[in-house]
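Task card 7
Instruction: Convert sequence to structure tokens.
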Amino acid sequence: MARTMKAGDLRQIVTLLRPRQVIGTNNRRTVEWDEITGIRAQKSDVSGREFWQAQAYNAEDVVTFTIRWRDDINATWRIRHGETTYNILEINHLGNMRDFMRIKTRAVGAGGV
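Output:
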């Protein structure tokens, strides 16, 4: 199956953030976010159909990023675009063709997250 994605479609620069457990004061565990790398991505809002299906899901805060294939990302990571940080909800490997992947995200703080 031929892909229609071109390098020029990846216009946005996003930063991948990986969690790291840290033991802070009073032996309390906290999570710190390490910046892994900046990469190019295509940003798209959730479709109208998904919006109506997921109204209680706060779909207005859901964004999908399409990036080049990486095998190190998982759902515990975050993506930062501009001033907004997003939790990863789902990673779609697009049939395991190892060229692009779509990552559905929700803004941190949206919908009680």
